[in-house]
Amino acid sequence: MTQDITDLRSTVRGEILTPQDAGYEDARALHNGMIDRRPAAIVRVSGTADVVSVLAYAREHALEVSVRGGGHGVAGHALGGDLVIDLSALRGVTVDAAARTAVVQAGTIWGEVDQATQAHGLAVPGGRISHTGVAGLTLGGGEGWLSAKYGLTCDNLIAVELVTADGRVVVADDESEPELMWALRGGGGNFGVVMSFTFRLHPLGPLVLGGMLGYRVSDAPAVLDALERLHSAGHDDFAPAAVFLTAPPAPFVPGHVVGRPILAIVPAWLGDPEAGAEVIRPLFEAATPLFDAVQPMPYLALQSMLDDGSQPGRRNRWSAEFVPGLDPSLISDLQDAAIAAPSPLSQLIVSPLPEAVRTAPDSAFPSRHGGRWLVHPVGVWVDPGDDPANLAWVQEVTTAIRKHGVTGSYLNLEQADDDRVRWAMGVRRYRRLQQVKAVWDPGDVFRHCAHVSP
After folding, report:
1. What pLDDT does 212 receive?
2. What's the pLDDT tens digit per position in 237-262?
3. Which long-range contacts (C-beta less than 8 Å, at least 24 apart) are formed by 226-232?
4. Where does residue 176 rank: exposed (0-12), middle (13-18), buried (19+ CB within 10 A)?
């Protein structure tokens, strides 16, 4: 294939890395250290023309392609093909403050979007980890702190520019290509290589209420009951998450608590911090916190406060289940799992599905209705020798969660096979996605994603 790659180099302006090139090993590294694949070439495209050239080359030589945005997806779809279209050099963010919109190139990460938009007092819902890629998160839905008030990332998507499997450059929005836009809002990377996203922005800040409350694992029933009641009260500024984790050696964690399993609550409040402090008072009344690190902070600090617990290169196995509610037996199962976790890096994340998501206009994103809480086991460890114990832990806690009436999945957080994708989407949504796929990618070029067959 050496001569063929030479031919490709003559048509692409961006950098092409093969296994013989310096920098290849770094270029193929993903967030999930368990993904160990060696594509024939990684093409760091310089723009749309390069993508068109790579797709033409792949068609000519019958090669599979995959697309890399931020490389954060746990399933490792970014390295699924013979040729990787690597968008990481495309990281521009253009904000129109008057129109409250932003055009974001597909290789951008969320921290860069937040920096650019907050300079104008604006924001768009993104993930909870600042180094998550924009492209994968958006195409799979996109749930984060601001979803409580403004819905999913994809609910705030106005337009996209993408390259189709046959090399056409298309600008899609609700008027020019409504069915494609419907599919791009939650249907994954099945339909083309998105080059840029145009988002609707919202006023936010400058300060929000963030930080963390820590509790004993044994306090989980009372604390999660208080959290559920607060969420049910319908405050659209209230954007909480609960996490069973091993207490980190952070400055705000007492020394005798470090290294112990705890329940942490991030009681994020998007409005006036003083009003938020009053609203979350029941969390202090439910049980006495081991520590209280809740305080007003810039939105950028809230967006990055969990980054230390999500370092690239570690070994990861995740699942993500929507459940109707936090019944006592489910909480008991989560307590047991938190105590039994073989790795101190693993977590169990519990977050409500906000009404702003449940009531948004229909899109390809599944699971808007039914389950009101997302339970997300995050298995994380370092040593490959610990794979059996940690994989077994994730499987066991996932099985336990599924006993409690699972209604759907958040596919962005899964290593889902085709059957799981079909189940999560549901019959009617999946058939509609197949119809869109048949129009835009009938040859199934874009199969390395949460896959929908044409």
Report:
1. 97
2. 999 999 999 999 999 999 999 999 99
3. 226/282, 226/283, 226/285, 226/286, 227/265, 227/283, 228/325, 228/326, 228/352, 229/282, 230/279, 230/280, 230/282, 230/283, 231/352
4. exposed
